[in-house]
Amino acid sequence: MSQPTATRTFVFTDIEGSTRRWQADEAGMSAALMRHDALVRSAIESHGGQVFKTVGDAFYAAFEHAPDGVAAAVALQLALAAEDWAASGVAVAPLRVRAAVHVGEAEARGGDWYGRSLNRVARLLAVGHGGQVLLSGTAEALVVDALPPGIALRDLGRHRLKDLLDPEQVFQVLAPGLVSEFPALDSVGGHPNNLPAQPSALFGREADVASVRALLAAHRLVTLTGIGGTGKTRLALQVATEALEDRPDGAWFVDLSPLADPALVVQATAMALGLREDSGRSLEDTLVEHLAERRLLLVLDNCEHVLEEASRLADTLLRQAPGVRILATSRELLAAPGEHTWAVPPLEVPALPGASTAPEELAQMTQVASVRLFAERAAAHRPEFRLTLDNAAAVAGICNRLEGVPLALELAAARVRHLDPRAILHRLDDRFRLLTTGSRTAPSRQQTLRAALDWSHDLLDGPERALLRRLAVFRGGWTLAAAEAVCADQADETGCGLPADAVLDVLGRLVDKSLALVREGDDGGSRYGFLETIRQYARERLEEAGETSRLETRHLAHFEVLSDETERHRNASDSAAWLDRIDAEVDNLRAALDRVAAGDLPPELGFRLAGRLWSPWSVRRASSDELVTRAKALLARHAGAVSVNAHAMVAYAAGNAAGKAGRREDSITYRKEAFDLARACGDERLEAWCLNDLANFAASRGELVDAERHLLASLAIKEKLGLDWEVASSLKNLGWIASGAGDVEAMYGWMNRSVAAARRAGSKGVLSGALADLAYFMAMDGRLDEARLAVDEACRLAEASGDYRRQADAFEHAGLVALMDGRLAAARESWLRAMRRALLLRQHRMALLVHFARLAVRDGDHDRAARLAGASGMDRSPVTIFGPHPRERADREADLTHARATLGEVAWDRAFGEGQAMKGEESFLYALAMPAEQGESVTAGLAMDGI
């Protein structure tokens, strides 16, 4: 017999800062609380509400009608505000009470209410401030047209609440006599972090969370250990969420589970913090420098397969970044100095009831964590599911047999869609008696989890089993299209077919059975994945079926096709969408390249994949150093086993990436090798690319005649092949050469031809670059109206292209045009936008610091100008043919000479030296006129931009 459910309006209240008040004045708070209780209860009951629970100073009330709940919340705030506490004999400051209102379904039981609606209103209350009344989106929808006179609502936006999956639209009640202005809500999103949304409420871990937080308060490295499926990651996320208020620089989550190469641990950590490599410096040095002065929590999740590197990095950070605390999850200890561990236990399980369950036993069971977890997940799969006197014994048996392991409970709960709890328990009994081949020395919980996974697998039909094991070939998730391309087959070894058009249905069934996960991808489509424990299990099944080599080859072929498509769309109108796809698949791309480098897969496909990745990886997030390392590994092992064309592609990729990473000699060596190979195999397009690069090298040495000769040869090939966007690039470079030679007429001729070719090609990125450079030269010549039109179009196109480098270029030029036009505010805004993208390129960042120095001169802040000039490294950076125009150089020198003369030599040298001593983000934040304590908001914004 199920418990009665009903929809009610719930109003929760509590006193802000009551614990501190009690500690300061226990007698005064005791008297104040009596008066508080009377006022709150009177307001609730006079508006038709029922107080069903009080906990300390908190009141929980239920109303039949939502407008009555809102009116009661307003009334109690007004009563508390109007109270003359001194006249009441209370010797404390006025009490500040916060209130929250939510409407939802709940179970009535024993004079109390239970259910997810109660969790939501409690979490909503926790983000508010004393004197404030908050409404959930559900409550607002029901009261907006029936508000009492004089009451209005203010939309505070969507907020993530602790422990809840879905963000909440929050509203504040406005009424005469109520305070209307408050600080920002204390929601998860109000603190710098990248913590993923938590997939569900956390059951039965309150004591564990408190214990782990206490450990973190006393020790800087805490590792959560336990078998797969105990909920280590979930517990870590909850601890991190609750620790946000203690860490001024936030909490940052690093998922190590997709990494096959331990060398990528540093890069994964840096990416989670929004950091990128800096030319001439290791990424680890950049990471350590970034964290050196910060107080934050770093969550290193799933360390067990990269244990040595995770331990080494943790030790390095603890020694060199004293404000950092690390919370790790691993099946094994990190064994790092200063490490303290917390073994994550299974959830509490209920006592087994007798032959029949008594009502009081049922009431006790509903408070047991494992039962609550099973019941909540079961209701998600079958909404009508309730814990009853009839099924309580079976549910208690399931929780005991699965020993409270959360993953096993979730898998069992998924079966409620098709089986009742008794049938589930019966199948568990059978399976446990049969599965006795595991290690006898392994913990019983580990054997139980294996049994649960085997049992779940045995309940799958043939196509479901085939798809489950084949999906294990992916790393970091997959799309439906990828699953269809890689996993579909006409028949497996059992004769069971899995055609491509059946994959969607079968994959949906795996999601329904909690064996696969689905979320919304960055492109708005669905992206699927595995819990790591299930992925490892599926991988074992794949190897047992003898399909590993075939599936890994198909996986490589699929992503080789994706890289080819991305290359062909590199400068098309939809290039940003293709770059996004490569971004999303970086873990799959790494897995495919790892398998090729290990000698397990056809090297020709792997070389073609690697050879095409230089472009998308160079304009987005992947490390150039990483691509150099991978290309070197491929060349060292397989160069003689692939076609000359494939060899040339990888050599070119290595040269391009080495150039981006500041490894000049490697870059020249590999590009010359690529040039010779391209000629040998007749790859004219690649030959043209190499000629373009050779021209750049010659120009950087001031060898303009050689540079022009190489560019003209490259241009001839590109025109012959009809490659309009590449023609535009060569024409633009010829314009720079002509400018360097002082031939203004030739420069404009080349530049105008470049713009025309880019328009024919329809490439937003290339056209943006051509227009930005043309605008630059126009501005230098005083043609400011034309320059402004050209650079505005360049910025719009760069934004649409998705190419961060093009965006940095366009916004930098837009700032220069604005500066020459006397629009200082516009120049500052453009350079700010450029700086947000220029983290990828050191030379951009250094140039921008000079621009900000010039702004400081215009602002009359000459000391600041000297610091920024020093931070830019301007006295150490040689000017190449692609450097500042003579007019810009002269204007810059005039500005800084004026500042130097105004300050005096001694003051200038002192400030300039202080600027030179700035490191990394320090100069970046200084340029933006932002104190260090505000830096987290900038870096968090950059991370949200995917930078």
CATH class of the largest domain: Alpha Beta
Mean residue pLDDT: 83
Write down the domain tally: 7
Distance between the termini: 55 Å
What would CATH call the homologous superfamily of the largest domain? Answer: Nucleotide cyclase, GGDEF domain
The count of strands amounts to 15
Tell me which CATH architecture of the largest domain applies here.
Answer: 2-Layer Sandwich
Q: Which features does this protein show?
A:
947 residues, alpha/beta, Alpha-Beta Plaits, Rossmann fold, 7 domains, 8-stranded mixed β-sheet, 5-stranded parallel β-sheet, 42 helices, disordered C terminus
Structure write-up:
The protein is α/β, with parallel strands linked by helices and 947 residues long. The protein folds into seven domains: 5-186, Nucleotide cyclase, GGDEF domain (Alpha-Beta Plaits, 2-Layer Sandwich), CATH 3.30.70; 206-343, P-loop containing nucleotide triphosphate hydrolases (Rossmann fold); 359-434; 460-546, Orthogonal Bundle (Arc Repressor Mutant, subunit A); 569-742, Serine Threonine Protein Phosphatase 5, Tetratricopeptide repeat, CATH 1.25.40; 763-833, Alpha Horseshoe (Serine Threonine Protein Phosphatase 5, Tetratricopeptide repeat); 841-947, no CATH class. The protein is 58% helix and 10% strand. The protein is built from 42 helices and 15 strands. The strands form three sheets. Strands 1, 2, 3, 4, 5, 6, 7 and 8 form an eight-stranded mixed sheet that branches. The protein has a five-stranded parallel sheet with strand order 10-11-12-9-13, with helices on both faces. A two-stranded antiparallel sheet has the order 14-15. A hairpin with an 8-residue loop joins strand 7 and strand 8 (168-174). Helix 23 runs parallel beside helix 26 (624-638). The model is unreliable at 431-448, 875-881 and 930-947 (pLDDT under 50).
